[in-house]
Each structure stands twice: as structure tokens, then as C-alpha cells.
Amino acid sequence: MNLLEDYMNLNTHEQEDEEEGGEHHNDAVVNVRHNWFEQEIYSDVKWCLALNRVEFRGTSEFQHLTVLSTKGFGKALVIDGHLQNTELDEYIYHENLVHPALLIHNKPKTVFIMGGGGGSAAREALKHKDIQKVVICDIDMNTASLIREHMKANHAAFNDRRLQIVYNDAMYELNKSEEKFDVIIGDLPDPYGSESGSSHLYTKSFYEGVVKAKLKVNGLFVTQAGPAGIFTHKVVFSPMYNTLKQVFTDVVAYTAIVPSYGDSYGWIMASNKPINLDGEQLNKRIDERIGGELKYLDGPVIAASTVLNKTLKNSLVEETRILTDQNVNVGYVRKPGVCINA
């Protein structure tokens, strides 16, 4: 499918550059001077990134993609108006998504990634020397290809013989698979209501009937769980935690600051076996298992990230919402971002 230029919800207003005679460019790369990308991260609070230019805008059958060149964070990916990650700090998100579960598991060999077509989660999983197979299952081949074209950091991962790529709905792909996996990773957009294309992959029935069924006996599931700040954690983080508590016997939530998000972010691990968070043991496994060096995590940091502040901790205890096929409504939904003149 050819990607068509699409202004989606990300409207660009170009400002004349006096030094260049006020020229406007109508090329594939749309030059923007002194502009900002802004998005409301919660009610009455906006987060802004200064822009050099908009490098690409396009739409596929499933979603809208924009690639921004930012002044402070390098290239940034925006899907359906929502910031996904930036070159400068995406490693924080992806290290936290992948390594805690792989290090806690005693002997992981196989990994299934739901989403993650850009390859960053696979890149991190493939750093583990004993991993024999990583499967990326992403529904959108066109957007995944474009992300790989614009974000170069993951090219080596796509040349790794251990990596397999499937373009399909993750529920369908797992259901038909005869294989079970040591670790299943959810690297999907937030479930913003029933209209979200990924909402069915966040429900109790999916976790119980598909994810748990496709994990090996000692398997772990881990998923991104949305913003986890003081004012934002009740949207996705706490109902997702409570939903997983209905399915798995041991569920652990953890958080980290991701600078480009302007907020804390959350992830949740779940298993039917005890999740051991011994910092020294995790450090030993990092030394033994991982080729190269992690930029953000070590054993004690992994353990410390599970210590939540009192506000979050109380919210997780008190949360009663469960994400179901009939009700995937969450709280305040972030509005799509826009590009504006300074």
C-alpha cells in the first residue's frame, strides 16, 4: 500500500524564515522553523517539544504516522497524534519493557512481542545471548517499515537470524500458534476505549484465554502500562494492574521517568510463579546473559523501580476497574498533539 500524505490531527503551521527569504517547501520533507509539538498530557497541562521540522507524514490502513525532528530529543515518532518515543531516550522505555522479565525468568529461550514493529523491543531482547527466538507480531507492515526507514538504530536486530516477523493481529497469531513462549511482551498503543485498535489486547479474557495459555509453565508476561504519574496513573496503569491481578497469581508494577514524555511511565509484569526481585542476582544475570552494556538498568535499579510512591500504591490497592470486552473505557484520554508556531 502506498502511504498517502495526511495531515491527521497533527496540523502544521509553517513560519516564514526571514533569513531564507520566507520560502516554503512542498517536498516529502516538510521544513518547519521555530515550531513546537504540543500535547495535553492531562487536563489543563500541556507538554511541548521544540521542532526543527516535520520529516514525514503518512497514513496506512491502520494508523497515522508522523516523524518529527526535535531540537532536544532527536527524531520523534508520533502515531495518531500521540508521541511514541524519541531517539534520545527511547532506550529507557525499551530497556524497562524487555529486560526485567527476561532477567527474572530463569532460562528464557523464546520471546513473543505483540506490536513493536519498529524493532526496538526486539533489539533489546536479542542482547540476551541465550535467546533462541524472538517473534515480532505487528498488525501494520507499512508503518513498521516506515519506522525502520526513519529510525536507524535497530537495523542490526533485523539482520539477526533469531528474529522472525509476522504481520497479523496478535490475538489471532497467538491463538493459532502451537508454540508456547517463555516471555510474552505487550508493546502496544494504550487502550483508549473501544475504538482503539489494540483495546482487545488489554482485556481480562485475552490475558486469561490467550496470553496465559501461550506461556510456558514458568513464563512471564510484561506489558507497557501507560503513564504512571501522580495525576495520570488512573487512566491505564491502575485498571490494567487490577485486570492482570484477576488472571495471574503474581503481578508487579514498576515505573521510570521518561524525559520526552514529561511524566513517569509504567510497566507491569505478571506470572503464575513468584517474581524474584533480588538486585544482586539480577546484576549477576546481566553480566552472564547480556552482550554489551545496558544504558539505564542494573539489578538494584530494576528492584527499586517496583517501589511505588504512596499515591500509586494506594491506587493499585483500591482499584476496582477491570478491562473487559464490554468495557475497555479508561479515564481521561490524552488529546492528539498538534504542531504550532512559537
Automatic annotation (TrEMBL):
<keyword id="KW-0620">Polyamine biosynthesis</keyword>
<dbReference type="InterPro" id="IPR030374">
    <property type="entry name" value="PABS"/>
</dbReference>
<dbReference type="GO" id="GO:0006596">
    <property type="term" value="P:polyamine biosynthetic process"/>
</dbReference>
<protein>
    <recommendedName>
        <fullName>thermospermine synthase</fullName>
        <ecNumber>2.5.1.79</ecNumber>
    </recommendedName>
</protein>
<dbReference type="InterPro" id="IPR029063">
    <property type="entry name" value="SAM-dependent_MTases_sf"/>
</dbReference>
<dbReference type="GO" id="GO:0010487">
    <property type="term" value="F:thermospermine synthase activity"/>
</dbReference>
<comment type="similarity">
    <text>Belongs to the spermidine/spermine synthase family.</text>
</comment>
<dbReference type="InterPro" id="IPR001045">
    <property type="entry name" value="Spermi_synthase"/>
</dbReference>
<dbReference type="Pfam" id="PF17284">
    <property type="entry name" value="Spermine_synt_N"/>
</dbReference>
<keyword id="KW-0808">Transferase</keyword>
<dbReference type="InterPro" id="IPR037163">
    <property type="entry name" value="Spermidine_synt_N_sf"/>
</dbReference>
<dbReference type="InterPro" id="IPR035246">
    <property type="entry name" value="Spermidine_synt_N"/>
</dbReference>
<feature type="domain" description="PABS">
    <location>
        <begin position="34"/>
        <end position="272"/>
    </location>
</feature>
<dbReference type="Pfam" id="PF01564">
    <property type="entry name" value="Spermine_synth"/>
</dbReference>
<feature type="active site" description="Proton acceptor">
    <location>
        <position position="187"/>
    </location>
</feature>
